[in-house]
Amino acid sequence: MKYAFQALMACVFILGGCASTNEHVLDMGDETQLQKRSYQSRVFETSDKERVLRAVISTLQDLGFVIDRADLVLGSVSGTKLEGNQIKITVSVRPKGNDRMTVRANAQFNVKPIEDPKQYQNFFTSLEQSLFLSANAGE
Known about the structure:
The chain is 48% helix and 27% strand. It is of the alpha+beta class. Helix 3 crosses helix 4. The longest helix is centred in the first third of the chain and has 25 residues, at 2-26.
């Protein structure tokens, strides 16, 4: 009986620890997910998913990233940049209706999410230029 009680108490402490961990994982902090999504995403007026993914790859390479993985079917590209610290980025491309693509970027500095909207604006400005150049080059 004593061992059963100890086992029960151990389970309670373990599960209690999991609950508090899950609460922190699901915390939205000061910013809501909607606010983050607004500066991490852009919609582009094109239905050509492959062209957008190629532009994402070119843009990331121009910014000094090494492409770790690119998947046309999933619509995602992941890259890493090492400059004394590690910056990782994952970009997803999804259709929005019949004639637009939503591009969403998510970046980390070491293990901490990058939450500065300016960094995402810089990426999207470069991506817009890349898409413009590829459209005018007839790609």
